[in-house]
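## retry 2 of 3
previous attempt timed out at serialization; input unchanged, resubmitting
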Amino acid sequence: MANTAFKTYANEHGGRVLLLLLLFLLAIYQFIHAGFSAFVIICLLPILILSVYAVFRWRMLAFWLLIVINYFIQMKGFSLPGPMSLPNELLQLLLLGIAIIDTRKTPHFERAGNLMLFALLIWCSFCILEIFNNTCGLGMNVGAWYTGARLLAFQLLYIFLVFSIYISSPEILIKYLILWAILSLFSAIWTWKQVHIGLTPAESSFLYGRGRTTHIIQGGTLIRYFSTFSDAANYGCNAAAAAVAFIIFGITTKFKKHKWLFLITAVLVIKSMFDSGTRTAIFCLFAGIAVFIVLSKSVKIAVPAAIVGGLFLFVLAFTKIGNGNQQIRRMRSAFDKSDASSVARDINQETMKKYMKDAPWGIGIGMMSDNVPANNKYNLMARIPTDSEYVFIWLRTGRIGITIFLLTTIMMLGGACFIVMFKLKSRSLIGIGGGLCSAFVAIQFGGYANQVLMQFPNCLIFYGGLSMVYVLPRIEKEWIEYENKILAEQEEKKRLKLEKKLASRV
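## retry succeeded, writing output
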């Protein structure tokens, strides 16, 4: 009877039974001859095959997975096998591969032909030329160069292409902004958990180990919290830039549910920004808001924002209000030019300038302390704390490289700002574009003072956000139709609610 049932099942399901049987036998063989690791790899093959199938069946699944993994990849205790950048890179390449396969049906890549692509190609081309940089006199180190170049340049190109291709409709745009808000809210809540409930074992290990000197300050009385991020500086700058975006989304959207979500997110994220104790974050916040005041071209927005921002800045810089709170005192020290941390940075940068006079192309992309011998002239430059993404780029690519990076960044930002100011007509879409441009400027300010610009999750969020601005004119017509539809549904719900309320009074 059992034999008959098996035959019937085998006839109905064809070769799948045989395939599973072969995989099972292969797994047992590998377990006996190669050990447990090989056994696990063979057992995971069906999951890998199903995952690839799911991605090709539901194309956006890989995109949303990329956003979520990118956000949590540096969370203490969250680890994936292989290099930290590998999951991001594989998902980005997979998404681009899918787009190439679909090109015959849908010409995705035409959406990527814009000024930002041109600027990124210039930067990537320069970084490719850096492979021949032999300032340190150590010959060509392709491995070290590729490790540095893919994080410094190639990932920017991947991010731009992925966002240009996959943010293709108003519905996807809104889903992305909501997902970003939910992730930011989670980080804010996690910060509250760290402050009031405590740290996980992995977080404690970081705080009292590698992070002790930078995260436990003021004689051990103040802890800088880092939420789901690698460190407090990374989180503080991200929180400031994200808060700028959500404030702008909140005050410009016409959807009530979204307005409350974005504004509540902004408030909680700003609170968490203070818990990070990252002083640069204050300047990131104000820089982003200042950019939107210009982009909005609206007196109604500009005047209140300028007044509120000016008062906030005045209170921090010129008064002692709130000095009873350690975190506020910490933020206020950002305006003190004699602060010990600022003095140390200035001394380091003066030292760097002396060495960099002889290195106009930099010491080389990928040249870190383990690549440059102790007796090499530039060993100190490979070891010295840069504290800033811009200083890091300057050291690796020299004054030529940092100039090209700045010019291409201005090109990308300038093109996006032009779109917001002169090409978009929808006020709510201008708000989205303006919020993304302002957040990009805010994180650039963070990169000027801290090494956060190319860190996870910032690079994907903010360079991806700027890429989206270039897509907005292409979907504006659909956006207006989508917005009118949602607003009509809002009004209908409001009318039905009012009718029900009136009927209950009769």
